[in-house]
Write a structure and sequence with these properties.
- The structure is a single chain.
- With 203 residues, this protein is of the alpha/beta class.
- The protein has a single domain (5-167), classed as P-loop containing nucleotide triphosphate hydrolases (Rossmann fold), CATH 3.40.50.
- It is built from six helices and six strands; from the N terminus they run βαββαβαββααα.
- The protein has helices spanning 16-27, 69-83, 99-111, 154-163, 174-188, 192-202, and strands spanning 5-9, 43-48, 51-57, 86-92, 115-120, 144-145.
- It has a six-stranded mixed beta sheet, sandwiched between helices.
- The longest helix is centred in the middle third of the chain and has 15 residues, at 69-83.
- It is globular and about 40 Å long.
- It starts with a strand and ends with a helix.
- The relative contact order is 0.18.
- The protein binds guanosine-5'-diphosphate and magnesium ion.
- Residues 16-17, 59 line the site of magnesium ion.
- Residues 10, 12-18, 59, 120-121, 123, 147-149 line the site of guanosine-5'-diphosphate.
Length: 203
């Protein structure tokens, strides 16, 4: 049965890992005492409304220095476009729309992949934060307010991605194809660190 792939993309520090960990931690038990298992994990199988899917935190390819931030973001988004059925584009409502967010949006729009736009750090649950309206300017649809630390709004985002999952009758032997795509991508990249992490995860 086809297992949809959902990739989280976004600038460093918007809360991708917090969001990822909340979703996978909520859905399956994670062995916390194994060093690195939770924190360094970049993909995990989980489910929503009875449908299994694979969630990928593209944080594994985040740059550690500012000068390569843009090229690394592009690489991150391109990998997500290549392997994902649905992309969660995470932004930070406290910081507002940045130039990198605009850059990512342009690439995502060109790809025609389904994208769910999320404004993380909307911590005041129940209060409409007017800062969210700015995110409509990215031109990729309705922004969804969430707070990954407070675990609010996340169900709505999962409902949204669920709408884009391929119908189960369209199932094929997707799992193997994805592994091959990941290996190929990992081999192509010049980022050795990323290669190692991807290969570790898929073995
Ligand atoms: P990543 O670099 O995109 O993976 O971001 P992280 O998940 O590592 O989070 C970056 C920082 O943002 C950490 O200090 C998190 O605690 C914080 N953070 C993540 N989600 C939220 C949120 O919903 N609200 C607030 N206020 N902080 C958050
Ligand atoms: Mg991270």
């Amino acid at each position: 049965m086809a297992k949809p792939i959902v990739a989280i993309v976004g600038r460093p520090n918007v809360g991708k890992s917090t969001f990822f960990n909340y979703i996978i931690g909520e859905k399956k038990s994670i062995v916390e005492d194994k060093p690195g298992v939770t924190r360094d994990r970049i993909y995990a199988d989980t489910n929503w409304r009875g449908r299994d899917f694979t969630l990928i935190d593209t944080a594994g390819i985040e740059p550690k220095s500012d000068d390569i931030i843009i090229s690394s973001m592009r690489e991150q988004v391109e990998i997500a476009i290549e392997i994902a059925d649905v992309i969660i584009f995470l932004t930070d409502i406290k910081q507002g729309v940045t130039e990198v967010d605009k850059d990512i949006s342009l690439i995502l729009k060109k790809s025609k992949k389904p994208v769910v736009l999320v404004c993380n750090k909307s911590d005041n649950f129940g209060n409409t934060n007017n800062d969210i309206y700015e995110f409509y300017n990215l031109g990729i649809g309705e922004p969804h307010a969430v707070s990954a630390v407070n675990a609010s709004g996340i169900g709505d985002v999962l409902d949204e991605i669920y709408k884009y999952f391929p119908k189960e009758t369209e199932a094929n032997e997707e799992g193997e194809v994805i592994k091959v795509a990941l290996i190929r991508k990992a081999k192509c990249t010049e980022n050795l660190h990323l290669q190692i992490r991807y290969l570790e995860q898929i073995e």
